[in-house]
Amino acid sequence: MAAPSLISLLLPFLLFLASPYLSASHRSFLKLPLLHSHSLSPSPSPSTRLFRRSRSAKYPVTSGARFGAGQYFVALHLGTPPQRLLLVADTGSDLVWSRCSACNGGDCSRRAPGSAFLARRSSSFRPHHCYSASCRLVPRPSPPRCNRTRLHSACRYEYTYSDGSLSTGFFSRETVALNTTSAKTEAAARFKGLAFGCGFRVSGPSVTGSSFNGAQGVMGLGRGPISFSSQLGRRIGSRKFSYCLMDYTLFPPPTSYLIIGDGPREENAASSSLAFTPLLANPILPTFYYVGIKRVYVDGERLPIDPSVWSLDELGNGGTIVDSGTTLTFLAEPGYRRILSAMRRRVGLPEAERAPPGFDLCVNVTGARRTRLPRLSFEMEGEAVFAPPPRNYFVEVAEGVRCLAVGPAETEGGGFSVIGNVMQQGFLWEFDGDRSRLGFSRRGCALS
């Protein structure tokens, strides 16, 4: 998904007060399950159109396929008493936000259970003050509407995505109920003071369309100080998180996990097989996880693509990001055309007569004894090679029809290439902010 279209480079870095429940004095971790929502619309996510040691946490990440959407969800228990919400796990944005409702008592009867966070039913809900340092960490309406008396003036935010989608409401703080896990025990814990957006107005395709079905908000996992991973990382003492996105086609969908901090022993063993590439910094768009692509291969043949196609320029334009909130992969137009041409030459299968709109290459695999599809690989900076299996980029869109789940990205004017979540499936991904590197491996997913 897209990060906000306008982010001030001068926002102060706020160090939130340490929670007594999450001191860094013991080695443990937090783990959340990821859930996948299934949708393979070829429409670009807003990201592709944007111009411009420690304790840890383990959260299940689940496919949203049953909701008909193309995202991975994390369940977050917010408030006192806790209210369960499904949020899109998104490395392409920073803000944690949820739909909110001001209803209370009987006037909530028209709202479906779990469809929004009911702020008035939480005793720990507190909006940030409009004049607080915290309020300067989020994009705000222009002009900011602050009460000059400084009394009861809540911080209003306006988080705008590049396609015009937005979430607006009150930038607030809340308590999160979660499980802390150490090598020997699991224990309930509370994370006090999580900064999040209580969204009373949500609009636009990227936050209300089919890819968002079943979700009540977004868990921003970007590199900024207000992202979920950054906030918990400061409490835990580690700027590292990892996840494994399981294959969305499997049924019943397997559970994978988002781990914030250093994982348990078995995850650490799996991380020994990781290949690492440096994370590149872009001060113009500091939210994103940029990687450097050196070369691209199809069936082992190096394609004649100038490395500058994948690179950031001196103005912060271009480059390639890894984004869990984008479903398909979108590559810079010159590189994409070379890849598409090579795929057509080597696919060895008839093109489908009735291909769905939006895909440039679809093949008919009906009756094929052996479906051999071309192998795509990316040589990254640091000599790491990302070689996903063909099912990560040739997806089944109808019975007997597979389409190339890669599209062109408009990079003129500041756009960039995006490696989406379908391409990432089946790999363990480790985002290591302490060492400014991204690790990946096909080992480790089954261990979650």
The portion of residues assigned to helices is: under 10%
Strand content: 25-35%
The coarse overall form would be globular
SS content category: mainly beta
Low-confidence sequence ranges: 4-27, 43-54, 63-69
Mean of all residue-level pLDDT scores: 81
Count of DSSP E strands?
28
Tell me briefly what this model is:
The protein is 8% helix and 35% strand. By secondary structure, it is mostly beta strands.
Topology:
Blueprint: E1 28-36, E2 56-64, E3 72-78, E4 83-90, E5 96-101, E6 117-118, E7 126-127, E8 156-160, E9 166-182, E10 186-203, H1 205-208, E11 217-220, H2 228-236, E12 240-244, E13 256-261, H3 265-271, E14 275-278, E15 290-291, E16 293-298, E17 301-302, E18 320-322, E19 329-332, H4 333-346, E20 362-364, E21 376-380, E22 385-386, E23 394-398, E24 401-404, E25 406-409, E26 417-419, H5 421-424, E27 428-432, E28 437-441
Parallel strand pairs: 1-2, 4-11, 5-6, 5-10, 18-26, 19-25
Antiparallel strand pairs: 1-3, 1-9, 1-13, 2-3, 2-13, 3-4, 3-9, 5-11, 7-9, 8-9, 9-10, 12-13, 12-27, 14-28, 15-18, 16-17, 16-21, 20-24, 21-22, 23-24, 27-28
